[in-house]
Specification:
heterotrimer, A mainly alpha (240), B alpha/beta (311), C mainly alpha (215), A: 240 residues, MetI-like fold, 10 helices, C: mainly alpha
Chain lengths: 240, 311, 215
């Protein structure tokens, strides 16, 4: 049978939808792990990036952080995290190193985009706001953040999709998630399983991208959408 | 008649003389030929593979061959095609392999490997022959798949053989590489041959650090390990005896290209294989993986100790 | 039996290996980015010129990213062997994803008024591209080169599967032997290399496009 036919058969086999090794369970594991990692990354990265951008300090650090974050192969981060945090115990075998590695991957683009977004607020607008008597805090919440939002959201979308894609690697630390189909498929020389896993990951990534796109549209104010937010020099914005 | 006899005698004498001369000149040609031949030896990233590959390398070098070692070759899916390509073509010429596992890989899990070494080797050779390769003599040293439990578990449930798991398996978790549920020597075999159905299966790495950690922490009850693993003793694990002979023979064997192997190579590599034992492997693996000694140095020492190289 | 994070005697004994691995790592990365750049410029220009091609080009380069490296190498080895070529095919594929995107975005970012002005001044399409559009797009393009370089430095590890790998070979060894020292050494040196490369390119950007510097 051809590979496409095998893949279809894999998806239509009832057993692949049941139990701990079934699609729903793996999908849930994957989504929960990705969501938790992105949430943790947002909680760490956004305050840092926004604050640095608001104060106009640590720019070089913020931008380089994103780039350097790419330099370490995910496999190495996983292995190092495994050495530090071990495999056993809460919240699941192999989950801790996976979580740490994913958060580490998600933080840099979030920091950078938040910083660049904040810096990209037009100087004139800031002057005008100060002229209107706004305090630093009001400036931050009422002017800078809303204007920086498109870039912050772009960073969030990038980070989220990256996390979903990379969470497959966590199957290598013997955790679960959709990556299990790929890793197990390799071990069992079952190409249909590998392709099925890859398709599911691609699907989840696509859904993540679309959903966050909707959120972005809902949250970003109308007047900002047409503009490119006047940011010319944004090294990490046009990310993969 | 007398003429014939003398012709025959002279022919025999000529032939004898000729071969003597030929042998004398030939051995000079041989060493020139050896020095110009580079044998590329591949190895997988785990210590045992690196150690044995370096043993082959050192022994061949002492015999006058040029060798290169390419280490870290991820999987059979990568190094077998490289073996078929050959060292002269950006591939490799020789790799340390395991009889049963290699056989089942090249025959796509047809189930030809068994507990009988000679049969398995013969079948392996005929399979390899079809792709331009061959296997030399198998070593007595073997690296079998084996199932282990912690000493605590073994003592508590009085486990010595795999059959002893029968009353307990339904409450136990089995840990092995992700291929285990589909391999006859693993989960299906345990079910069929031993009647064991485990409560859960946890995909890990066969015999690797993850399996070790999982066993130590109780995330799994029974783990797949390798019989020559150096960490088994250090981790206080008990290997259960394969009393119903589920495992196929996984003796070490050199897999080599037919177009590069010659008689001297054959002789040297067979000598190395013959001198290697499972106990030695266990010790070498322990020193590499537990004591973190350099696999290359370990190979060098072993070759010196066994007279393949001088100090 | 705890394994210290760095065994300095191992580092001393393997000093030569570490240097050789670093050199291999640099070579593989440099070659990948250079080839990637050469290929991505015409691809990026084509994607802009014929907008219909943009989606397929970006999609294809994106798809390359999802092929697991093991599968890619297993496919290539029978043809190109365990060679640098095989490694580069994998690495260049990944750089294309980033570079093509940035070339398109950079050129897209040139304000239409500037394009009109250049047209009005009598620039022909090629001249306009070379003298006006590319220079203005340079910051974004160079930003892409920075990202591609750093990402490639990280990806070189994966070529360890075919026996190349540069510093990644140590990482793989560390994972396989449960041995912290090569894992840490390989990781730290990789990151250091990436930081150096990134800083170097950042400096080069500032030199090359003074008009784009911030107030």
């Amino acid at each position: 049978m051809s590979l496409p036919a095998d893949v279809v058969e894999w998806f239509t086999t009832a057993e692949h939808w049941r139990g701990d090794f079934g699609v729903p369970h793996r999908l849930t594991e994957h989504a929960v792990m990705s969501g938790a990692a992105v949430l943790a990354a947002v909680l760490i990265a956004l305050p840092v990036g926004v604050w640095l951008g608001h104060r106009g300090r640590g720019g070089a650090l913020a931008i380089n952080l994103a780039n350097v974050g790419r330099a370490l192969p995910s496999l190495a981060i996983l292995a190092l995290a495994q050495q530090v945090f071990g495999l056993s115990g809460w919240p699941g075998f192999g989950a801790r190193p996976a979580f740490v590695a994913l958060v580490a991957l998600a933080v840099p683009p979030l920091v950078t985009n938040a910083y660049v977004g904040m810096r990209g607020v037009d100087h004139d607008v800031v002057e005008a706001a100060r002229g209107m008597g706004m305090t630093g805090r009001e400036l931050l919440w009422r002017v800078e953040l809303p204007i920086a939002l498109p870039l912050i959201m772009a960073g969030l979308r990038t980070a989220a999709v990256q996390v979903v894609a990379t969470a497959t690697l966590a199957a290598v630390t013997a955790w679960g998630g959709l990556g299990r189909f790929i890793v197990d498929g390799f071990g069992q020389q079952d190409n249909a399983q590998i392709v099925a896993g890859a398709l599911l990951v691609a699907l989840l990534a696509l859904v993540t991208e679309l959903v966050l796109g909707r959120v972005q549209r809902a949250v970003v104010s109308q007047g900002l959408r047409a503009e490119s937010a006047g940011v010319a020099e944004a090294p990490a914005v046009v990310t993969a | 008649m007398q003429l014939l006899q003398s012709v025959r005698t002279r022919t025999i004498a000529a032939v004898l003389l000729g071969s003597l001369v030929g042998a004398a000149c030939g051995s000079e040609d041989d060493s020139a030929a050896k020095a110009s031949k580079t044998v590329v030896i591949g190895s997988a990233p785990f210590s045992e593979s690196v150690i044995v590959a370096n043993m082959y390398a050192g022994a061949l070098q002492a015999e006058g061959y040029q060798v290169t070692v390419r280490k870290g070759l991820g999987q059979r899916e990568i190094y077998l095609p490289a073996l078929q390509k050959g060292g002269a073509d950006n591939g490799i010429d020789l790799v340390p392999e395991y009889v049963g596992t290699l056989l089942e890989h090249v025959n796509k899990n047809a189930g030809e490997a068994s507990g009988n070494l000679d049969e398995s080797v013969t079948k392996l050779r005929s399979r390899l022959d079809q792709i331009g390769l061959t296997a030399l003599n198998p070593s007595p040293a073997a690296d079998q798949n084996a199932f282990a439990v912690t000493r605590a578990t073994a003592d508590r449930l009085r486990l010595r053989r795999i059959s002893d798991l029968a009353p307990h398996a339904a409450n136990m978790t089995l840990g092995a590489g992700p291929e285990c549920p589909t391999r006859p020597f693993c989960q299906p075999g345990l079910e069929k041959t031993y009647g064991l159905t485990f409560k859960t299966f946890r995909p890990l790495d066969s015999g690797g650090p993850k399996t070790m950690e999982a066993l130590a922490n109780g995330d799994i009850d029974v783990g797949l390990v390798f019989s020559s693993d150096g960490a088994v003793a250090a981790r206080n694990l008990v290997v259960l005896e394969d009393d119903k002979k589920l495992q196929t023979v996984d003796n070490l064997i050199p897999a080599i290209r037919k177009d590069i192997v010659d008689d001297d190579m054959r002789m040297v590599l067979n000598k190395v294989s013959a001198a290697l034992t499972t106990e030695a492997l266990i010790d070498l693996n322990k020193r590499a993986d537990v004591d973190k000694a350099d696999p290359e140095n370990l190979a060098r020492e072993w070759l010196q100790q066994h007279g393949f190289t001088k100090k | 039996m705890a394994d210290p994070w760095v065994r300095w005697d191992w580092v001393r004994d393997h000093g030569d290996d570490i240097l050789a691995a670093t050199r291999q790592h640099v070579e593989l990365s440099l070659l990948a980015v250079a080839i990637g750049l050469l290929l991505s410029v015409p691809l990026g220009l084509a994607a802009r010129r014929w907008r219909g091609l943009e989606a397929p080009i970006l999609g294809l380069t994106g798809a390359l990213f999802t092929i697991p490296s093991l599968a890619l190498f297993a496919l290539l080895v029978p043809f190109t062997g365990l060679s640098r070529t095989t490694a580069e095919i994998g690495l260049v594929g990944y750089t294309l994803l980033i570079l093509v995107r940035n070339i398109v975005a950079g050129l897209d970012g040139v304000p239409p008024e500037v394009r009109d002005a250049a047209h009005g001044m009598g620039y022909r399409p090629l001249g306009q591209l070379l003298r006006v559009e590319l220079p203005l797009a340079l910051p974004v393009i160079v930003a892409g080169i920075r990202i591609a370089t750093v990402t490639t430095i990280g990806l070189v590890t994966v070529t360890g599967l075919i026996g190349q790998g540069g510093l990644g070979a140590f990482i793989i060894e560390g994972i396989n032997r449960d041995f912290r020292t090569p894992l840490v050494v390989g990781s730290v040196c990789s990151v250091a290399l990436a930081v150096l490369a990134d800083l170097g390119l950042a400096g080069a950007t500032r030199l090359l496009s003074p008009w784009a510097r911030r107030r």
